[in-house]
Amino acid sequence: MSRPKLPRKSTNIDMTAMCDVAFLLLSFFILTTKFKAAEAITVTPPSSVAAKVAPEKDFVLLSIDKDGKVFLSMDDEQKKEFIATSLNNTKNLNLNVKAFVKAPFIGASFAQLAQFLAIPEDQRKGENMPGIPCKDSTNNEVTEWMTLIKSAYNGQKMELLLKGDNASKYPAFKNIVVAFKKNDLLKFQMVTNPESVPVGSELYKKSSSGEKRVE
Amino acid sequence: MAEMDTSSGGGHKKGPGVKKAKKASTRVDLTPMVDLGFLLITFFIFTTTMSQPTAMKLNLPKDTDKEEEQNKAKESGALTILLGKDNNVFYYEGILTTENASANFKSANFGSGDDGIRKVILRKKASTNEKDLVVVIKPSDECEYKNVIDILDEMSINVIKRYALVDISIVEVQLIKVTEAAAGGK
Lengths: 215, 186
Hints:
The structure holds 2 protein chains of 2 kinds. Chain A is of the alpha/beta class. Helix content of chain A is 36%, strand content 13%. In chain A, strands 1-5-4-2-3 form a 5-stranded mixed β-sheet, with no helix packed on it. In chain A, helix 6 links the parallel strand 4 and strand 5. In chain A, helix 2 packs across helix 5 and helix 5 packs across helix 6. The termini of chain A are far apart. By secondary structure, chain B is α/β, with parallel strands linked by helices. Helices cover 33% and strands 16% of the residues of chain B. In chain B, a hairpin with a 5-residue loop joins strand 2 and strand 3. The chains are: A alpha/beta, B alpha/beta. Strand 5 of chain A pairs antiparallel with strand 1 of chain B.
C-alpha cells in the first residue's frame, strides 16, 4: 500500500514583502539620522560618568581649544543684540549688530571684534582666530564678557557651560573660572562625553542598589 | 507582486506550424536584495553613535578674605591631590612640611591598579571619619584639562562629598618637579 502523495509545495517564498520592509527601515534610519553640524571650533571634550544631558537652550558656552584659545557662543539672539548694542555704546566698537547676532561664535578681543565680524561666516574657523584673550589676570576679557552676559540675562535662567579640549592646559581653565568667580557666577557645567561607571566602584554599587545619583 | 500576467488574455489563435513563444517567468529572486537591505541597515545602525554630550556640574566656593568664613579642614581628614604633567598624579595626607615631605609625598597614576589614585582615595575614605574627609585638588599649570575632569570624575565615582579645587603653591610645584626629574632619571 502506498501512502497518499502529499502535494509538493514550492519552497520559494515571496521575498517582495520582506524587501519592502528592509528598505523602508533603511530609508527611515537614513532620514532620521541627524548629522553633526561641522563645527567651526574643534574641541574633543574628555569623558566623565556624569549622566545629565547638556542643556541645549539658554546656554552660554565657553570653549577652550587645544591651544588654550577661548571662544564664546550663545544661542539667545535677543541677548546677543543687547550685548552688541551695549558694546557699541560703551566702547565705541562700531560693531555690525546683525553680524554679531548671526555669528555662531565670538573669538577675538574687543579691539579686533569689528574686524572679526567682517570676515565671511564660513571662513571663520576656530584655528585661524585669535580667541578671546584671557591669558593673565590683567587682560582677562572673559571677565568683561561675563559681566555683559550677566547684565543681558539679568537674573533669567542661563546655563553656563564650559567645554574644554582634552589637551588644553589647566591655566586656560583656571582663568575662565577666575572670570566666573569675579562675576559671582558660581554654578557652571562642564561638557563631557558620557562614559560608563567603572564596575565595582562605590558609585556603581550605589546606582545598582537603586539609589538616586546626586548631581 | 513580483509577477506579471504575461499570458495574452484571449488572444487570437495561431495557425498550425506557428510555434508558441516560450513564456519567460518575470519572477525575480529578491533574496539578495533583501540581504543587501538588511546589510545596509546594520551598517548604519552600527556606525551611528548616539553621542549626546553630558554635563558635569561644578559649584565654586565664594572667595572670602574673612577668616571666620573660610572653611576649615581638619588636618587628619585632608587628602591633597596634585596634578603634574604627562598624567602624573601626586598626593599627600594632612599637611606637608619639610620634615615629612619625603615620606608623605607619594606619586600615583590614573590607572585602576594598586597605586592608582582611586585606590588611594578609597583607602583614605575607609580610614577617616566621613565628616572630616576633604579632598583638596591642586592642578599645576602643566597638567591638562582632561586630568582635571578625570580627577573630578573620580570624586563622583568614589562618592566623595567634600572636595575643593585649590591653587597650587610654589613649594608643591618644586616638589613635583623634583619627583618628576627623579622618575625620569631612572
